[in-house]
Write a structure and sequence with these properties.
The protein has 760 residues and is of the alpha+beta class. It contains 19 helices and 30 strands. The chain is globular and about 80 Å long. The structure holds ligand MTE, hypoxanthine and dioxothiomolybdenum(VI) ion. Ligand MTE binds next to helix 15 and helix 17.
Amino acid sequence: MSATNERIPPTQTNIDSQTHLRGESLYLDDIPILTGTLFGACLGSPVAHGHIRSIDISAAEAVPGVIKVFTAKDIAGENEIGGIIQDEPLLADHEVHFCGMPVAFVVAETWDIARYAMKQIITDIEEHEPVTCPRKAKELGMLIHPPRTHRLGNVDEAFENCHYIFEGQADSNGQEHLYIETQGAYAVPQENGQIRIYSSTQGPTAVQKAVSKVLGVPQHSIEIDVTRLGGGFGGKEDQANTWAALCAMAAHHLQVPVKYALHRLDDMAMTGKRHPYSSDFKIGLSEDLKILAYEVTFYQNSGASADLSPAVLERTLFHCNNTYYIPNVRATAYPCKTHLPPNTAFRGFGGPQGMFVIESAIMFVAEKLGVDATDIQYRNLIQTGQPFAYRQLVDSDAQNCWHAAANAFNIGQIKKDIAVFNEQNEHYKKGMAIMPICFGISFTNTMMNNARALVHIYSDGSVNISTGAVEMGQGVNTKIMQVAAVTLGIHPRKIKILSTNTYRVANTSPSAASATADLNGKAAQIACTALLNRLKEVAAQQLNTTELDHICFKNGLVYLDDAETALTWEAVVMTAFVQRVALTENGHYATPKIHYDKATEQGHPFAYHVFGTSITEVTVDCIRGIYDIDSVKIVHDFGESMNTGIDMGQIEGGLVQGIGWMTLEEVVYDAKGKLRSNALSTYKVPDVYSVPGTITILPLETDKDNMAILKSKAVGEPPLMYGIGSYFAIRNAIKAFNPNAKIALDAPMTPEKTLMALYS
Ligand code: MTE
Ligand code: HPA
Ligand code: MOS
């Protein structure tokens, strides 16, 4: 693939790899602690739903070393941190809405004292019955906002003409982000009422806004700085705000630095996760298995406040067809308010939950009719020029990915080999499933699709770049550096990517929606191009030409008519500096062409779509109910990857995270709304044994123009959805053992459920 493309700079090495390897990369906890720093601990509500009668902090404040215990009444500004809907207090005021909801913030001389004192706080809460089930919440009218419906064609009429109609239910569970670095922040007061906050956040501007509101201080006084995250996966798009606001409130009030990083168990109990969904589907097909009508109702378990749920819900609707063309669709989604921690962004952002239901519906039909689900999938792949329910006409590579996978991996042979294996083995059964994907790239909220980059060229020719992009392991800094190196024609070593800072780059969208490299990379490209054009003018004078088009910068040298000159990058920069040419530029990028009208639920919300097809093979041990993911073979639509190492890593990581969601990871709350899967002993995440035996990734060869940065399509989220194939592959293996197995469409397919299903 494009590793050989000459647009790519001499090195694609991840710029973090050396410091990562040496343990020198800086995370929040590596920031040296200033003398006088205090440490926080946050008390979470012990009950899921109730009325606060009193909070007695006297014993806690009496603990030696405790400086102050903050409660809602200490908030100087607004007690409100909701981003989309203003429904989320920073500290519980009169009511508690979920177990772990922040109630009080203890600040003490040490972390241990703070935690000890926190346990001395006495809360008197009149308990009410919690609601944890989204369907029950809907019945009770507990919705975050009214339902939304996407429509195409006329479903009711279409069902009348269907040869086959089936109805069923499909549920998917939540997922713990389990970023290696837990949530946290370190707030340091500056002069004149300003405050600097180091935050482990994907959304520095979101943190800035929340802090500004809580302190009642304008945004220009709030500096958020992020070097990198030890993972975010969506969990820090909005939910880093709480901890930063608590630290900032205490630091501002006491005028000393305050730090708080969550204990892993608190992080698991207090923060929201991927949204569980319960869904009803009705699907109608023609005799030749074309899907003619699809009606689906999603019950999103939103949790106790909106957080990002409305946006997540929107993306569920956008992706409810997955990669299939269905002429008649009615998809309705309810954001159901429950007494659980507010659920939030998680890789795929509601898309995977939507796709799981259509895949379940197809599998349901296949099992009822005794046909192969892959036949139904293949016949319904969307083609270029066909619309989704939201009306965007698709430039489709669905068929191309499928065909490339079918040819490269010989699907026919895989099916035959599995049949032979299953014939010959009584206690082990193999299964396979194909998972074609289509994921829209852009924030679904059009307004958010913009970014800025601030580029400085110093007089020695070295370059610094600041953008709104947050590095969280996905390699975005390396990609931005590549963009700058290619644009300026200099070696990547000449370029440093700085921390993400709200004083240098303002009003940023979070690093999310897989769009960070596209948005911030394009902003950097715009800034670098403007600088380059100025430098070309300087070089032109020096080379006595007026033909700017004939000049180019490459490998740190100036070329005239493709011939190397004696002029170096450094010499041109120095001359420009002496001539008082501006060597700083701010680039602004706003994705063109996209628009969406929420009133009609129609528009063109995505810059482009990413396609792919995966084939998953599994072996189920039918005595024990355990299974191995033998292999996953993928054809993925990279566009033209600008960094194959990083992009392959994203696919492998996303895939395994998706497999975890679909097979192992079981978020369990009890009827009281308490998290039972509250530690790594009770919540199983993928380990080396859950990783597929082999992962093969082939690029789809395309030379299409797309709107991606350097044509290198966004890759952060789409691969997670390849993991959905593991659920259906296991299901197929179970059916090979017990054709009459009764298996609810209810993910994850844990070994326990697998065992029950084998003998059902
Ligand atoms: N990869 C790593 N290593 N760590 C992360 O936290 N987050 C994922 C994905 N890949 C994540 C990751 C999510 S949820 C998104 S939206 C994208 O990266 C965000 O980065 P991008 O926009 O640069 O792809
Ligand atoms: N994706 C991810 N994060 C978001 C989105 C989206 O579409 N919209 C708002 N935050
Ligand atoms: Mo990713 S869920 O958009 O942070």
